[in-house]
Specification:
This protein is α/β, with parallel strands linked by helices and 390 residues long. The protein has helices at 16-19, 29-44, 101-116, 159-169, 223-237, 254-261, 274-286, 299-308, 327-336, 348-360; strands at 65-72, 78-83, 90-92, 131-138, 145-151, 173-180, 192-197, 202-206, 209-213, 244-248, 266-271, 292-296, 315-318, 340-345, 364-372, 382-389. The protein folds into two domains: 30-57 and 222-389, Rossmann fold, CATH 3.40.50.150; 65-202, Beta Barrel (OB fold (Dihydrolipoamide Acetyltransferase, E2P)), CATH 2.40.50. 30% of the residues lie in helices and 25% in strands. The chain has a seven-stranded mixed beta sheet, covered by helices on one side. A seven-stranded mixed beta sheet has the order 12-11-10-13-14-16-15, with helices on both faces. A two-stranded antiparallel ribbon has the order 8-9. Strand 5, helix 4 (159-169) and strand 6 (173-180) form a beta-alpha-beta unit. The longest helix is centred in the first third of the chain and has 16 residues, at 29-44. The protein is globular and about 70 Å long. The structure holds S-adenosyl-L-homocysteine. S-adenosyl-L-homocysteine (SAH) binds next to helix 6 and strand 11.
Length: 390
């Protein structure tokens, strides 16, 4: 298949229906962008003009994180791929048009190696066997690859030879981790991990900053468009230097760290997930930043306490999950009254609800709305909005 956006054939993936991952594949890429533009406008054009969505030049193989489930069929053949939507049946996949091509090659190679190393696949019903899943993450800027083998049992026969063979074939694999998941669960990763090779993490570079990626840490899955999205967020914030910045719902600290590198005076990040906060602290250190701190906790609670203590940040970035923000957060934000609010959202519907609350209950006005296509061929939409006081 050719990799230019003009050449996409509608529904050209052979497992389009069974996989269900790419809901918009029946449309050409141009039609997908038009569909997303219309959806964002439906919810958000009541606030201000919606800028044209920024699509990808090459909307393929953008996923830097790829997962595959393993099973042996009745004829003793090993298959790897994704779960058929809504079931526990596996749809065999060797290559996928949105996944990183190197990650796909690694998964197929591991599958072929299993037999010669006499390794079995895990049987969920009998709760027996070895390999359950593979998770591959690749830093697009660094070309460092992490291979995570999720196994049902801890014993890994001929482990060293296996690691030697796979890293010889793919020298870009910088670390191999065994994650043990013996539970009856839909979660891919279990609690116990052993580093078999390398440091147990890889690094990537985003907007000129270094980020550590470990098996469990959250990292945006489309780094090319993430740079576009964060670039817009930083542009909207118009940092001149010495501003006090809050990065709320900060994950592993990406936006705050990039802001701290781009002229913010001091940054505070707030995030609920403990592991993400640990990664954020590491990331700040890796970038030699002394002007950024992180708090673990609910963003709404943090904002309430901070507003009662009369904190006056200049810029607040907010990037809540799909459900959007809550009243506690939004009313405290109004009380704090920062000059600039940059709202990043993966759900235009909850973004509209929150923008409505902010513009109805204060003098904030929405000045810019920019959708970015982070997930081509799927129905997901990311939008960044700028609010300032009129
Ligand atoms: N800004 C980050 C992460 C955005 S995803 C990035 O661009 O990578 C949304 C984040 O909000 C997740 O990390 C999630 O753990 C966090 N979160 C969810 N509910 C929260 C809450 N009530 N308070 C603070 N953080 C929350």
């Amino acid at each position: 298949m050719s990799n230019t956006k003009d050449n996409i054939k509608r529904g050209s993936c052979p497992v389009y229906k069974k996989c269900g991952g790419c809901q918009l594949q029946n449309l050409t890429y141009q039609e997908q962008l038009a569909f997303k533009q219309k959806k964002v406008s439906k919810f958000l054009s009541q606030f201000c003009k919606v800028q044209p969505i920024i699509g990808m030049e090459n909307p393929f193989h953008y996923r830097n994180k790829v997962q595959a489930a393993f099973r042996t069929d009745r004829n003793g053949r090993i298959i790897s791929g994704v779960y058929q939507s809504g079931t526990h049946r596996i749809v065999g996949i060797d290559e996928c048009m949105i996944e990183d091509a190197i990650a796909d090659k690694i998964i197929v190679t591991v599958r072929k190696m299993l037999k010669s190393f006499k390794l079995t696949t895990y049987d969920e019903d009998a709760q027996r066997g070895f390999l359950r899943h593979i998770l591959v993450k690749r830093g697009f800027a660094t070309n460092e690859v992490m291979l995570v083998l999720v196994t049902g049992t801890p014993v890994f026969p001929s482990k060293n030879n296996f690691v030697k063979a796979i890293t010889k074939e793919f020298p870009e694999i910088k670390t191999v981790v065994q994650n043990i998941n013996p539970y009856r669960t839909n979660l891919v990763l279990g609690d116990v991990q052993k580093i078999l090779y390398g440091k147990g993490y890889i690094e990537d570079i985003l907007c000129g900053c270094k980020f550590r990626i470990s098996p469990k840490s959250f990292y945006q899955i489309n780094p090319i468009q993430t740079e576009v999205l964060y670039g817009k967020a930083i542009e909207f914030a118009k940092l001149k230097g010495n501003e006090t910045v809050l990065d709320t719902y900060c994950g592993i600290g990406t936006i705050g760290i990039i802001a701290a590198k781009n002229g913010a005076g001091s940054v505070i990040g707030v995030e609920l997930n403990k592991d993400a906060v640990k990664d954020a602290v590491q990331n700040a250190r890796a970038n030699d930043l002394k002007n950024i701190r992180f708090y673990q906790g609910d963003a709404g609670e943090f904002m309430e306490v901070a507003s009662e203590e009369d904190e006056k940040p200049d810029v607040v970035f907010m990037d809540p999950p799909r459900a959007g923000s809550d009243k506690k957060f939004l009313s405290s934000l109004i009380k704090m009254s920062p000059k600039t609010v940059v709202y990043i959202s993966c759900n235009p519907e909850t973004m509209a609800r929150d923008l409505y609350y902010l513009t109805q209950n204060s003098t904030y006005k929405v000045k810019k709305i920019q959708p970015v296509d982070m997930f081509p061929h799927t129905s997901h939409i990311e939008t960044v909005a700028l609010l300032t006081k009129s």
